[in-house]
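FW: tagging you since you asked about this chain on Friday. Here's the raw sequence from the shared folder, copied in full. Didn't touch anything.
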Amino acid sequence: MTTSTVGAAGRASLSGVKKTLFLPCCVALQNSLMKPGNTSASATDAPAQHKPLKPFEAWRLGVISGSAVAALCFVYLVVLVIGLATLPSPDHPVQQPWLALLELLILAIAPAMVALAVAICCSASPERLPLALVGLVFFGMCALTTSAVHFCILVLGGHEAFSGEPWSTLVFSFRWPSLVYALDILAWDVFFPLGALCLAVAVQGAGLARRVRALLVVSGVLALAGLAGVVLGDMRVRLIGVVGYALCFPVAAAMLAMLFQRERGAGAG
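HL: got it, structure written out here
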């Protein structure tokens, strides 16, 4: 058998695999992502039995996760204020049990934030979906990094095996410079703003949706601006970023929950 014959047979086999395997998968994925009322696909794009599904589960997930992010962030701010108010001196770190509560709240906020990003992706239009998925990846990276940081602080920060070591403050302390501080900056001043800016593009519409979009952009820009604190070596400048992800983003999450609830009610009607 000649080389050209082998090549032709291989191309024919590959074409058959594409038709029998890849094409049905792509059609099923497209139908699952199509929103109600979307008439951009013609009747020949998919078999007649595949109909666009209303994303009720995505809307429900958006309502639950958006409400959870807003509520948990509010509780976090309340606990933080109490922890700061009970400090023996301004230079003293937050004491127990407030520190442990703060760490646990962050560990709860992180997965709720990822779930909210998933809901945004599932309700995004097909042309905005790729950028929304990029935002989801960045939110996942943010959640993974900050969860690892705060879990280590919660479990190992006060352990006797580390507390007596002279280098422990360079690892577990939130005083610059330290390892956990640098990783937390990576999570919230790099991964978070990139994710927020990408997800903002996926939120379409006027009125409430426009305000959500604006808040996500503002939170992302402010979080990125917090990196100036690292460049200048002044962590007080990083408070600009804290305003972005600790104040603006929870408000955006609450508004997203309202937006998903409104879309869910309209879809049910």
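FW: The chain has ten helices and no strands.
HL: agreed, and The radius of gyration is 24 Å.
FW: great, closing this out.
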